[in-house]
Every structure is written in C-alpha cells, then in structure tokens.
Amino acid sequence: MNKVIANADVAIQDIQDGMTLMLGGFGLCGIPENSITALVKNGVKNLTCISNNAGVDDFGIGLMLHKKQVKKMIASYVGENAEFERQLLSGELEVELIPQGTLATRCMAAGYGMPAIFTPAGVGTEVAEGKETRNFNGKDYLMEMAFDADFAIVKAWKGDTMGNLIYKSTARNFNPLMAMAGKITIAEVEELVPAGELDPDQIHTPGIYVHRIFQGSNYEKRIEQRTLRTT
Q1: Is 229 part of a structural domain of the chain?
Q2: What letters, b where the CB count within 10 A reaches 16 and e where it falls short, cover 3-17?
Q3: What is the mean pLDDT of each run of 10 residues along the chain (231 residues)?
Q4: Which CATH number do you get for residue 110?
Q5: Residue 228 maps to a domain
Q6: Torsions phi, psi of 175, nearest 5?
Q7: How many CB atoms lie under 10 A from the CB of residue 46?
Q8: What is the residue range of 12's domain?
Q9: Torsion angle, CA of 90/91/94/96, rounded to 10 degrees?
Q10: How far apart are alpha carbons 187 and 154 in whole angstroms?
Q11: How many distinct structural domains can be found in the chain?
C-alpha cells in the first residue's frame, strides 16, 4: 500500500477545529516542522495538543500559540515559551502538566489498546486530584487514562512508501510512542525511499501504524539551549 502524500498541506487538510493532536519531539529535536507550518497556514483552531513541550516563541508549537490555535496544552515541560506563559496566566489557555514518564506511558497505552495505566508518579500531589487511586502490594498508584488523539503527527529521519520509519539519535524520543497512538498517524521524513530499501532490523516504527507519509524540506533543526565551554 502506497501511503505517500504530496506535502504537509495535503497531509493535514482534514484536521478540523476542536480536534486532539499528538505532536512528536523533545524540546526542538525531532518536531514535525513542516506539519506545524501547514497547520499555522491552515488556521485550524481550538486544538488540544499533546506534546512533551510547547516549543519556543517563534518555532514549533509556539507558532500555533501565537495564532491562538491551541485551546488546551497537555505537556510535561513548558519553560521556554513566553507566549505560553502569558496565555496561561491570563486564562486564555488550558494547561495540563503531566510527569514525563506518565505522558510517555499514556501514549504507549493508547498504542497498545490499553484503556488506562497505574503509576506512582503524582500520588499525594495536585496531579492526583480527581483521579482514582488504588493500592497494590501496599503502595498507592494513580489510574491515568490512555490518550485519545484524532491525529498523531511525527517526524522521522528516513521512511519508505509503506510508512516504515527510522528515527535518528535524540529524535527517537516521543515520536515512536505517538506514532502508535493516533487514530490517524502522519509522518514527515527527511528522506523517503521505495518500499524494501530499509533494513528491517533498523526500523523503529512499523508501517502498520502510519497512515500518511511525505518527504519534508527546509528543516531548521534548531538547538533550544546552546551551551559552550569558555576555556
């Protein structure tokens, strides 16, 4: 089955107002740059975005925040975005902060078809408010629901026309988990090759999880925090 889409604009064209999106990446590493640009251009709004972080002011999900396209942000780290902070403090943006391991595992649960997970993270804190707690072998655990996302949008280094994906280095972060978890998964890749050219032993995401794939372009691959030695 050929899953190749012409470009990001075509790939995201049926994403509608009010939908829930997963967006892969860690910091600014491995984020679906082309798809985010297409979403900004499309103007879709009232989105719930699930991502490790919210980008920075002028890059990544930060671009969508500036356009007021995000209604709710579900993330584990949001410290590098002044516009995010402004919208949060003004009440314009709903925010759900989640421990990073819980975020990853709720993605995994969705991919595995599990309705919920139990985790000790957050027990006895504000994270636990309104959630069911169960005790296993003398230890309390929170029940956290698997995510329910309309689309998962991920970025890979290389992919083939069947949707098989290979991630490179740090970009192999939330992308594999989110690729499993969306009702529809869109993958943008730096290099798109014919089916059969990828070494099966190197594939991180099997094509069964991917519905649309396209070759991206003009990747900036920014570094969020550059630290250099002075000596």
Answers
A1: no
A2: bebeebbebbeebee
A3: 92 97 92 96 97 90 94 89 90 93 95 96 91 96 96 97 94 94 97 95 96 94 78 75
A4: 3.40.1080.10
A5: no
A6: -60, -50
A7: 13
A8: 8-122+129-215
A9: 70
A10: 5
A11: 1
